[in-house]
Design brief:
By secondary structure, the protein is an alpha+beta fold. It is built from eleven helices and four strands; from the N terminus they run E-H-H-E-H-H-E-H-H-H-E-H-H-H-H.
Length: about 210
């Protein structure tokens, strides 16, 4: 049995679902053998860090989407967990990457995720990536790995948000389905006017919605 460290990110969607990070921390600390929370900090992710984090996906078609989402102004909550076989345990607690699969089993992505890869949580996929990602993020933000400080930071977050907001995302999922259907209709209409690819057209739609 090996003691491992794993980076966990509550992504921008989880930051908006206030109960999600609380449930994640409490569930993981109960599930990981000898589990420890070593940091719990909110940060807005710059493109430079996002590119390093997702370096293995550089050049792939979905790479811009990864950067765009993780760099959302809502930011992320950076967490590092330590424990025996921590990586495997965390991934089991979070469940499948895609929400449509996650909702078929009992897991946190199935509980809180909205759709597709908008799944609330990132976790290291191996002990090696756990060590690399932990160093990358803690070095970048100069985060001190300290169990006592992490507990204090988490307790403050929990005191502020626990039980004050709903945790049922079913209504959000229904709205997301409608938005995605409408967005496909918009893309098809724009393609009659342009040779822009789908990603650029959807970025334009996002700008229109936010205007």
């Amino acid at each position: 049995m090996s003691v491992e460290r794993a980076l966990v990110l509550a992504k921008p969607d989880a930051v908006c679902i206030r109960q999600a990070p609380i449930t994640a921390v409490e569930t993981l600390l109960k599930s990981i053998n000898g589990g420890k929370l070593l940091c719990f900090e909110h940060h807005v992710v710059p493109t430079e860090l996002a590119e390093q984090h997702y370096e293995e996906h550089k050049g792939k078609g979905f790479f811009p989407k990864l950067l765009n989402f993780i760099c959302n102004p809502n930011g992320v909550i950076v967490m590092v967990f330590e424990g025996v076989n921590a990586v495997k345990t965390i991934r089991e607690v979070f469940g499948p990457t895609f929400v449509e699969k996650a909702i078929q089993v009992e897991c946190l992505r199935g509980k809180f995720g909205s759709c597709g890869g908008i799944n609330c949580f990132h976790s290291s996929d191996s002990a090696e990536s756990g060590a690399r990602e932990t160093k990358l993020w803690t070095d970048y933000f100069k985060i001190e790995l300290n169990e006592e400080k992490a507990k204090k930071d988490f307790d403050e977050y929990k005191a502020k948000y626990d039980g004050k907001y709903k945790s049922d995302v079913s209504k959000v999922r229904e709205i997301v389905k409608k938005i995605r259907a409408d967005s496909e209709e918009y893309v098809n209409a724009m393609k009659e006017l342009s040779d822009c690819d789908d990603f650029l057209i959807k970025q334009l739609l996002a700008s229109i919605i936010l205007n």
